[in-house]
Design a protein that fits this description.
about 130 residues, single chain, four-stranded mixed beta sheet
């Protein structure tokens, strides 16, 4: 049998939610430099902002970069893959209906793989989020 392997990295790019002393773009550049040293096939990021997303697209220009088409909050999930695309590949995104923070899934299907990026609801009300 043929064994397939992928290398996947996931990172919450604003996990501490504080003033970092550098712009979001500078932080995103540093995060990508560090993460790319591991040579991932998939890169899953949570709490991305639009300026960060633009930097991701610039740095990962030869990757396929996906996000939800419409965000209801400032932060959103982004999945990037360097695997070559195929006609059957696709991505989908679904919101959590009870999320107060615009939380959603982002699924990227590439070949035999389906990779789901999610940033779960947090806080005391998270238990009821679906």
């Amino acid at each position: 049998s043929i064994v397939q392997e992928i290398s996947l990295v996931t990172v919450n790019v604003d996990g501490l939610g504080k003033n970092y002393g550098r712009s979001p773009i500078e932080r995103m550049t540093s995060i990508l430099e560090e993460v790319l040293r591991t040579s991932p096939d998939f890169l899953l990021m949570q709490e991305v902002t639009m300026p960060m997303y633009m930097e991701i697209q610039r740095v990962l220009a030869d990757w396929k970069v996906k996000k939800r088409h419409v965000q209801s909050e400032e932060y959103f999930n982004v999945t990037a893959t360097k695997w070559p695309g195929k006609a059957a590949d696709k991505s989908t995104s679904f919101p959590f209906p009870s999320s107060n923070n615009g939380r959603h899934t982002l699924t990227v299907r590439r070949g035999d793989w389906a990779v789901i990026n999610v940033h779960a609801e947090s806080g005391s009300l998270a238990f009821g989020a679906r």
